[in-house]
Amino acid sequence: MFSRLLRPGKRSLESLSEQEILALAISSEEDDGRIYLAYADALREAYPHSARVFEEMSAEESHHRQMLIDRHISRFGDRIPLVRREFVRDFPERKPDWLIGNMSLDAIRAQAEAMEASAHQFYLTAAARTQDAATRKLLGDLALAEKSHESLARRLGEQHTPADVKTQEDQTARRQFILTYVQPGLAGLMDGSVSTLAPIFAAAFATQDTWQTFLVGLSASVGAGISMGFTEAAHDDGKLSGRGSPIKRGLASGIMTALGGLGHALPYLIPNFMLATSIAVLVVFVELWTIAFIQNRYMETPFLRAAMQVVLGGSLVLAAGILIGNA
Length: 327
What we know:
Blueprint: H1 2-6, H2 18-43, H3 48-76, H4 105-128, H5 133-146, H6 152-160, H7 163-195, H8 197-207, H9 210-235, H10 246-263, H11 273-298, H12 303-326
């Protein structure tokens, strides 16, 4: 009942006539074929083998569409009514093309699997609602085609992306994730965590005022985040370096820079100076060890070396800020 109120004007699948079911199946196959081609276009440069998989999946959808059109012409003539999935209540939705560029390789593979599963369920339901024997057989055959032994995405994947190729593409995807998000985000987190230590703790010990210290920390963190974000986005468009979208890198760097500084600035919202400072110092060490962990996990830096570089360096900056504040 609530779904009807939230989506007025949509019809249930049960209310569709046999002709409308065929029209819906035709438009759905056409949409899915276009989506698979969009996947192929998005993946072709970095993942040519997976792109080939989606090209063949698109060709398969085109074949299904033609079978459905032939059946419609035979049964109802060549005038196909306009019935699309967005007109039908509870019909699985698809992501628009402009969101595909933001999806990872694994997310695209998973989406293809989900598309096939929903298509299989649709054809089973549609076949059960048709009375014409030939139409029912066609819809049943298409349901089997979408769910034969293993999914089409997996079967084509075994043909065009064998284990060694899939491993290589997964490594490429991981490398791209590191270059686009982890590396600039890590640089921002390091800059925000370390560079704001001195001004925040200098202000804290110089003023003994938690609110003023918080304002210093907030301004330093936000300012550093904006600066790092714009610097990361402006200095490399990613075309030659292969580091990905400058906007994504800029956001990763800017947001992590601001968070790195805010981590030890937020405790100064506590009015008690000693309690706020104790929590802030604890947060600093958590931040520094987190940076060391990320360096070890993604950048393959030996953990002890990363810990020495980050924790020792951060501790020196922290000590400098306290000394300056007490001067």
